[in-house]
Amino acid sequence: MTFATADEDRFRHIYAGNFEHLLAYATRRVDQPADAADVVAETFLVAWRRHRDIPDGAEARLWLYGVARRVLSNHLRGGVRRDRLGVRLRQRLTAADAPDPGTEVSDRLTVRAALARLGDLDREVLMLTVWEDLEPREAAVVLDVSPAVVRTRLTRARARLREIIGHDPGPPGHVLDVLAAPVPEEGR
User: Fold this and answer.
1) Which residues contact 110 (CB under 8 A, 6 or more apart)?
2) CB of 129 within 8 A of CB of 180?
3) CA–CA distance from 166 to each of 27, 106, 136, 182 (Å)?
4) More confident site: 132 or 4
5) d(CA 46, CA 11)
């Protein structure tokens, strides 16, 4: 729907007369100035879409405050959800007993270099089954090939990787365990 010239002029007048008030309103209610700007932008977007609902005169500001209040409420609820998600992620990361990644850099580089020497399909089959822990039939769905192709490619890819890298000298759980990881049993 396009605005008629009178509607455009009315909206511009409402915007100019109320922008500073709404920005001050939002700024006093959020922690970051950028969040206040987002609230005001969303408020005027709603006003733009519902321009025929905006009352005339001083009532327009009150109507805009009502819209801003609802936009702000949605914004704050979204912030609470983001905070809760952040807490859950931090808890999971803390609970995971992750070794210092710096100790594995050279091994990771070795594996990546060896993987780069494999064909695309062999590399992807190996990564999907070992690193993503997919069964061959699941990897087949991802790759749009038959499970038999995945099993054959997996056997070949492991043999080729052993030729390139050699045997894994590291302890159990070592980065190079990609060579010794068991082929996942397929659930039938």
Assistant:
1) 165, 176
2) no
3) 62, 15, 24, 17
4) 132
5) 12
Please give the backbone phi and psi of residue 71, each rounded to the nearest 5 degrees, phi first: -60, -45
Residue type, 102: G
Tokens of 131: 């690193």
d(CA 38, CA 44): 10
Q: What SS3 class is residue 98? A: coil
Phi and psi angles of residue 64, each rounded to the nearest 5 degrees, phi first: -65, -40
Lowest mean pLDDT among 46-50, 98-102, 146-150, 181-185: 181-185
Any idea what the Cα angle at residue 21 is, between residues 8 and 10, rounded to 5°? Answer: 15
Backbone dihedral angles phi then psi of residue 184, each to the nearest 5 degrees: -60, 140
Query: Following DSSP, what letter does each residue of 30-47 receive, concatenated?
Result: SSSHHHHHHHHHHHHHHH
What is d(CA 3, CA 66) in angstroms, rounded to the nearest whole number? 23
Instruction: Kindly tell me if the per-residue pLDDT of 81 is higher than 90.
Output: no
Residue 169 pLDDT grade (very low, low, confident, very high; cuts 50, 70, 90):
low
Matching residue, tokens 């769905």:
141
